[in-house]
Description:
Layout: E1 5-10, H1 15-30, E2 34-38, H2 42-45, E3 51-53, E4 64-69, H3 71-81, E5 88-92, E6 102-103, H4 107-115, E7 120-124, E8 127-133, E9 136-143, E10 146-151, E11 158-164, E12 167-174, E13 176-180, H5 188-191, E14 204-209, E15 219-221, E16 227-231, E17 238-242, E18 246-250, E19 255-260, E20 265-269, H6 275-283
Parallel strand pairs: 1-2, 1-4, 2-3, 4-5, 5-6
Antiparallel strand pairs: 7-20, 8-9, 8-19, 10-13, 10-17, 11-12, 11-16, 13-14, 14-15, 16-19, 17-18
Helix pairs in contact: 1-4
Amino acid sequence: MSGRSVLVVAHTGRPEAVRSAQLVIERLSEAGIAVRVLDGEAPDIGCAGADAVPGAVAAEDAEVVMVLGGDGTLLRAADLTRTSGTPLLGVNLGHVGFLAEAERDDLAATVDRVVERRYDVEERMTIDVTVRRNGSVTGTTWALNEASIEKAERERMLEVVAEIDGRPLSSWGCDGVVCATPTGSTAYAFSAGGPVVWPEVEAMLVVPISAHSLFSRPLVVSPRSLVAVEVQRGTPRAVLWCDGRRTLDLPPGARVEVRRGAVPVRLARLHLTPFTDRLVTKFGLPVTGWRGRVRQPAHPSPPTDGEAVPDGQRG
């Protein structure tokens, strides 16, 4: 063995993901790379060429985590790798797969790129979330995409007050509020009417959900800001969801504080594709008729007699 190791995480509820995991394990093992799988997934994958390891230590000292599934599977894997800093490489076997770097048809080539270490790593901003009640901390968590404060009772609106950097902004009667990262701008925040934010932009988004208010526009605030959402007393209880995975109950009077995360998530990139192209591809945006900007010749010919010469080119 080469001393290298790769963790494989799969959506084992999908037969295609199981078959893909088996192929990845086989090809990595042939290349002399040790392969790990989560002990909870090992029986479904059923591949003798991998070591089953507990989730708490699965990503430690691994070179990369190959994630086979959709964005939900990648968010689950991010829980395993956030403290270790191991980069995630997603292969999309789901629907949109915004966080994934490769598609199912590119699986073999993707494994080859891992074997050859031909990938780059970028960091994505996260958010840290603190829940308080009566001044005491009752829970802490984090998110790569978003933290959403949502009503827990369908028949009644949630009454909240939003605060930015210690100053009250507005109260809303609403279904909830989404606090998102740029990475999460194409997820829940997008569905709630928020803007798409390019990943290299450092900012936080605040997006009210179905707010009954004249001022309920999506907000883009500084990454250094502290965003707080207070659940009003006398309102129905609420619930906090982070990345659609981690949840905390929010009784009336609870306060949710959101700030930039201390630890980013690292993503492995095979292609330095512009984010604009990713948007067009993932959302199937219509670009018919685009001709691109007019390109100037590298060595323009001197003007002929009678042809105007731009001021900046006159001798």
